[in-house]
Amino acid sequence: MPETTSANLGADLKRLSDMAILHYEPFIKQIESEKISDITEIERLLDGMFDFCYDKKMLVLYKRVLRKIVYKHYDVAKRHIDAYRDWYED
User: Fold this and answer.
1) In the chain, what are the domain boundaries?
2) Is 33 exposed, middle or buried (0-12, 13-18, 19+ CB in 10 A)?
3) Residue 88 burial by CB count (10 A; 0-12/13-18/19+): exposed, middle or buried?
4) pLDDT, tens only, 7-40
């Protein structure tokens, strides 16, 4: 088995986050165009995206969704903003 190094781990995390971005991007566009408006589905997407918010590109997508829902579903947006702050901010 190959030795795991921090460089390998970093590269693996980058590949994984790049794959996640490609996966979630079409859903974000559907939310923005209101083709997806079910808040349960949107929350499920946000939950999946949350684990990748260490990546700046994913964070941009995450914020786009939050901006789209904040006025209609303030409680959901606030919950996700608070979770981000608790988990990612110092």
Assistant:
1) 6-88
2) exposed
3) exposed
4) 788 899 999 999 999 999 999 999 999 999 999 9
